[in-house]
Amino acid sequence: xxxxxxxxxxxxxxxxxxxxxxxxxxxxxxxxxxxxxxxxxxxxxxxxxxxxxxxxxxxxxxxxx
Length: 65
Ligand SMILES: [Zn+2]
What we know:
This protein is of the alpha+beta class. A 3-stranded antiparallel β-sheet has the order 3-4-5, with no helix packed on it. Strand 1 (8-10) and strand 2 form a beta hairpin. The chain has one domain (8-62). It is built from 2 helices and 5 strands; from the N terminus they run E-E-E-H-H-E-E. The protein is elongated, with a radius of gyration of 14 Å. Bound molecules: zinc ion. Zinc ion is lined by residues 10, 12-13, 17, 55, 57-58, 60.
């Protein structure tokens, strides 16, 4: 797979970095939903709908701002 051409500023690394999408671990989300008696379900939905970019260097989530 080719590297992403666009870079984002990472506040943790304090420089422009390449990034990737973190795939949602649905098994873990399902487990969390069971543990929290369904309270985690909105978070699971949010994680599934909102694609968060992660820094390739430090794995921190990047903001789109
Ligand atoms: Zn970083």
